[in-house]
Specification:
Blueprint: H1 4-16, H2 18-54, E1 59-65, E2 68-70, E3 72-73, H3 76-81, E4 87-99, E5 104-111, H4 120-125, H5 131-134, E6 139-142, H6 144-152, E7 158-162, E8 168-176, H7 182-185, E9 188-192, H8 193-200, E10 206-207, E11 209-213, H9 220-229, E12 234-238, H10 239-277, H11 281-292, H12 297-329, H13 335-340, H14 357-383, H15 387-391
Parallel strand pairs: 5-9, 6-8
Antiparallel strand pairs: 1-2, 1-11, 1-12, 3-10, 4-5, 4-11, 6-9, 7-8
Helix pairs in contact: 1-12, 2-10, 2-12, 10-14, 12-14
C-alpha cells in the first residue's frame, strides 16, 4: 500500500502529531549526541596515540632503586648491544621541569641530532628544522601549550631555567610546534641532549633510560628476559605494554559513558512505552477509522513504522551531525579534558577525524530496533481490537 495517498497521510500524521514527536526528537537527539561524541573522541585519540606508540622503540630499559626510577649508567649500552637481535640502542634524556608561576611542569626532551633517533615521531616533529642554524647556539623548540604559557608571561624570545645547582641558564626559543602535534608535544621542550642534562641534573655519564629495537618479533620475549638478567634492578618496558595500558585506559573511560548511556536509553524507552501505552481516544479513533475504511492491521502497523522510523532516523542523524561538529569542529570543549586529563598545561589539540562506519551502523540498529518496538506494541494492541469498541 505504498502509494501517493499513503505518503500524503504519513506526512499529515507527522504534522498532526508534531508536538508529541518534537519532545521525542529532542531527547533522542541528545542521547545519540552524547554517545556518538564519546565514540568519536575515543576512537580519534586512541588512533593518534596508537600511531604515536607504534613509532616508539620496542623496549625501554630503566634503572630502579627503592621502587623509584633513577638515572642509568651509559655503560649499560654496551651490555644491551651484546644481546642477540637488539639494534638501535640509544640513551634518552628527559624529565619534568617545574614552572613556578603556574605551578605546573614542562617535559624537557634532550635530543642528539647527530645520532639516529629512537623515535620516528620525535624525528617527524623536527623534520623541518634547519640543523645548521639550530646548532649555532643554545636553542630550544617548544610545544604549542608551552608557547601559549610563555607568551602569557612575556617570554617571547627566551626563558631562563634554574638548574639543580641553583644556577641560571638562559635558552633562546628557536621555533614552536603546531597544534597538529600537540597530543604528543603540547608540554614538550626539545633541546640538545647535553643542555637537557644540565637543566635536569643528569650526570655526564648518565641517562634517563635506554631505548632499543628488536626487529624480529619472535626474538622479543627472549630479548626481554636477557635484558632483565643483565643487571639487578632493571625494568624493561615493551611497546606492547604501553599500548595495552592506553587501550585499557580509554576503554575504561568509554565504558563509564556507555553504562550511563544504557541506563539513560532504558529509562527513555520505558517512558516512551508508557507514553504510547496510554493511547488517548483520538488515537484510538484514528486507528478505528483506518480499519473502517479498509486498512488492514498490517497497513496500520506499516504506517506507524514509517511515522516513527522517520522521527528516529532524523533524530539519530541530527545527533551524529551535532557530535561531529562538536568533536572535530568545536574541538570537544570539556569532554576532551575528561579523556586527556587536567593534570598539566591546557591542550589545544586538533582531533584527527576518524569515523567507523560499522560502529555508526551498529549504533543505529541498536537504537532504532528498541525504539520501534516500544512504539509499535501498544499500537498493535489497539489495532487488533474491535473497531466499534475502539471508537467508543
Amino acid at each position: 500500500m505504498l502509494n501517493k495517498s499513503f505518503y500524503n497521510f504519513l506526512f499529515l500524521l507527522l504534522f498532526t502529531h508534531r508536538s508529541k514527536h518534537i519532545a521525542i526528537f529532542i531527547i533522542s537527539t541528545l542521547l545519540v549526541f552524547i554517545l556518538t561524541s564519546v565514540m568519536f573522541i575515543s576512537n580519534s585519540i586512541s588512533k593518534d596515540i596508537l600511531a604515536t606508540i607504534n613509532s616508539q622503540p620496542d623496549f625501554i630499559v630503566q634503572k630502579m632503586k627503592a621502587g623509584q626510577v633513577v638515572d642509568i649508567d651509559i655503560s649499560m649500552v654496551e651490555k644491551i648491544e651484546s644481546v642477540l637481535g637488539v639494534s638501535n640502542v640509544t640513551t634518552r634524556v628527559y624529565g619534568k621541569y617545574y614552572f613556578k608561576p603556574l605551578k605546573q611542569s614542562f617535559t624537557i626532551v634532550g635530543v642528539d641530532f647527530f645520532e639516529e633517533q629512537n623515535s620516528k615521531t620525535l624525528l617527524s616533529l623536527t623534520k623541518k628544522l634547519n640543523m645548521e642554524k639550530f646548532l649555532e647556539k643554545e636553542y630550544m623548540i617548544i610545544g604549542s601549550g608551552v608557547k601559549k604559557l610563555f607568551d602569557k608571561y612575556k617570554y617571547f624570545k627566551s626563558y631562563i631555567f634554574t638548574t639543580p645547582l641553583n644556577e641560571s641558564l638562559e635558552i633562546e626559543i628557536y621555533d614552536s610546534l603546531d597544534d597538529t602535534t600537540s597530543l604528543l608535544s603540547n608540554d614538550m621542550i626539545i633541546m640538545p641532549k647535553e643542555l637537557a642534562k644540565i637543566i635536569l641534573g643528569v650526570g655526564e655519564y648518565k641517562a634517563t633510560d635506554i631505548a632499543l629495537n628488536v626487529p624480529n618479533d619472535l626474538e622479543r620475549p627472549n630479548a626481554k628476559v636477557e635484558l632483565i638478567l643483565k643487571e639487578d634492578n632493571l625494568r624493561v618496558i615493551s611497546k606492547d605494554e604501553i599500548k595495552s595500558y592506553y587501550l585499557n585506559l580509554f576503554s575504561y573511560k568509554t565504558g563509564i559513558f556507555l553504562i550511563l548511556y544504557i541506563v539513560s536509553i532504558i529509562t527513555f524507552l520505558l517512558v516512551l512505552y508508557q507514553r504510547y501505552s496510554m493511547i488517548n481516544s483520538s488515537d484510538k479513533k484514528e486507528i478505528a477509522i483506518l480499519k473502517a475504511v479498509g486498512w488492514s492491521i498490517k497497513d496500520i502497523l506499516k504506517l506507524k513504522v514509517f511515522e516513527n522510523f522517520l522521527v528516529a532516523f532524523f533524530s539519530f542523524s541530527f545527533g551524529v551531525i551535532l557530535a561531529f561538529l562538536y568533536i572535530f569542529i568545536a574541538k570537544a570543549p570539556f569532554l576532551i579534558n575528561i579523556f586527556l586529563g587536567y593534570s598539566n598545561l591546557e591542550i589545544s589539540y586538533e582531533l584527527t577525524p576518524y569515523i567507523s562506519i560499522g560502529s555508526i551502523i551498529t549504533l543505529f540498529i541498536f537504537y532504532i530496533v528498541p525504539f520501534l518496538c516500544v512504539v509499535l506494541f501498544p499500537v498493535w494492541k489497539i489495532a487488533t481490537i474491535d473497531v466499534i469498541k475502539s471508537i467508543k
